[in-house]
Amino acid sequence: xxxxxxxxxxxxxxxxxxxxxxxxxxxxxxxxxxxxxxxxxxxxxxxxxxxxxxxxxxxxxxxxxxxxxxxxxxxxxxxxxxxxxxxxxxxxxxxxxxxxxxxxxxxxxxxxxxxxxxxxxxxxxxxxxxxxxxxxxxxxxxxxxxxxxxxxxxxxxxxxxxxxxxxxxxxxxxxxxxxxxxxxxxxxxxxxxxxxxxxxxxxxxxxxxxxxxxxxxxxxxxxxxxxxxxxxxxxxxxxxxxxxxxxxxxxxxxxxxxxxxxxxxxxx
Length: 268
Ligand SMILES: NC(=O)c1ccc[n+]([C@@H]2O[C@H](COP(=O)([O-])OP(=O)(O)OC[C@H]3O[C@@H](n4cnc5c(N)ncnc54)[C@H](OP(=O)(O)O)[C@@H]3O)[C@@H](O)[C@H]2O)c1
Fold this sequence. Notes:
Elements: E1 9-13, H1 18-29, E2 33-38, H2 41-54, E3 59-63, H3 69-82, E4 88-91, H4 108-129, E5 139-144, H5 157-177, E6 182-189, H6 195-207, H7 212-223, H8 233-244, E7 255-258
Helix pairs in contact: 1-8, 3-4, 4-5, 6-7
The chain binds NADP nicotinamide-adenine-dinucleotide phosphate.
């Protein structure tokens, strides 16, 4: 299927590892030039090197902290110096739960830091890149939410706050940006086997005296993932690449689950 992404430019926050890196590789495979944002320059450089080694696309890395407005503005200025038009913006930066303790007892600082990163960070990045986005119908904003926003998952209160808000605000953004011919959609991943999730599964297995595979097998069944396993970052990437493409031009304001059927709420 021809996706029409060749020669376009995609900005990916949190593009140095995990789901963001998989999305970067997937868009590069379709011929997109990339701007990767994250705080850690070393990992950004390693990821960019890997992408350049595999695909003939331009990759710019910019170290930025999306919790800070000035850092985001400076990153956008650097990005458009190299790539004046941005076609695809993937708001993906986020990450693991900070701590497993009871979040209702967290300090204001801890709550605000999490919300400032994922939810307000997404607005900040969108605001900074919006003036530079294509208005010819190829403009796409894709927000990476998560199932902590559509269900109640252990202690993940701030993740729930961020991810549910992100899904709802995606609708507001889609309505606002329709006049500029930009579509805005949310992707809602389930349990995805990124590097930190791998470490989490190993650790949980050890605590329960089980192998990682045994733990994961039981966990996936227990929480109702009907496909019976976690997803790979590449399986999230496939959906994001499609949404970024011309083929998805009539999908707007949607929330698309990539969760192995977790969302059907199956009970054993
Ligand atoms: N893995 C899952 O099971 C899962 C499930 C549902 C939803 N999600 C969502 O998917 C997204 C990616 O998750 P992941 O598991 O791939 O996480 P990850 O492997 O921890 O990667 C997170 C990325 O975000 C960047 N980042 C973190 N804080 C940042 C900041 N303040 N400013 C700029 N960049 C920042 C990180 O780089 P630096 O640390 O160098 O900044 C890294 O590139 C998140 O929004 C997460 O909530 C993940």
